[in-house]
């Protein structure tokens, strides 16, 4: 982890102290009454300097509220936030940090090794110890929260099938005269009322007439 600080250029290097870093922190088990614009900055501010709330996620109904806070890396990490309710009962909110670098489980300082810790310098590495801090301070990677929108194509309404009423014709077919000049080319033509015609192939019958209805 590399910490940077903006300076004006007039400071002496020995007077510049870099010990602040912003983290995204997940605060769990916050009651619904405390998830307001007034209460959330106060709750997250117990960890350090409050910056903002991640409103892309489910702030009002999720398991946790994600906030960005500037904390002092020279101080031990806070595992929980204690708050008082309206009934004077103590509320405890577990805390987890996103992208948390290495820290020592004995003292909870970021970038602090066991050799540099005065409180845990005499700890025997061969003996199992129960440290105050553990891996539980690391938050799982946050998945992007998106509102899923499903497009529903409008269903086409089926065209109703309605019966078509056709008025009866005055007569079914009008018959046209037959050309009987040549017996082998006799054709009976039935002309319908709409102008269409039905042709009958040549026949050996002299008076063959086919009527279309």
UniProtKB/TrEMBL annotation:
<protein>
    <recommendedName>
        <fullName>CCHC-type domain-containing protein</fullName>
    </recommendedName>
</protein>
<dbReference type="InterPro" id="IPR040256">
    <property type="entry name" value="At4g02000-like"/>
</dbReference>
């Amino acid at each position: 982890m590399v910490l940077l600080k903006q300076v004006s250029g007039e400071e002496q290097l020995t007077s510049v102290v870099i010990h602040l870093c912003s983290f995204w922190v997940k605060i769990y088990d916050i009651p619904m009454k405390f998830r307001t614009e007034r209460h959330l900055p106060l709750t997250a501010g117990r960890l350090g300097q409050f910056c903002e709330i991640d409103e892309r996620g489910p702030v009002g109904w999720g398991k946790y509220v994600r906030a960005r806070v500037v904390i002092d890396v020279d101080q031990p990490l806070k595992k929980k936030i204690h708050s008082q309710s309206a009934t004077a009962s103590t509320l405890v909110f577990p805390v987890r940090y996103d992208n948390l670098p290495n820290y020592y489980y004995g003292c909870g300082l970021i970038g602090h090794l066991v050799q540099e810790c005065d409180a845990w310098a005499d700890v025997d590495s061969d003996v199992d110890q129960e440290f105050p801090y553990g891996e539980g301070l690391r938050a799982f990677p946050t998945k992007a929260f998106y509102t899923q929108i499903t497009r529903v194509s409008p269903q086409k309404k089926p065209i109703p099938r309605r019966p078509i009423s056709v008025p009866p014709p005055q007569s079914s077919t009008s018959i046209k005269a037959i050309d009987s000049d040549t017996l082998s080319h006799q054709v009976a033509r039935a002309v319908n009322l709409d102008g269409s015609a039905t042709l009958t192939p040549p026949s050996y019958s002299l008076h063959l007439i086919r009527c279309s209805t």
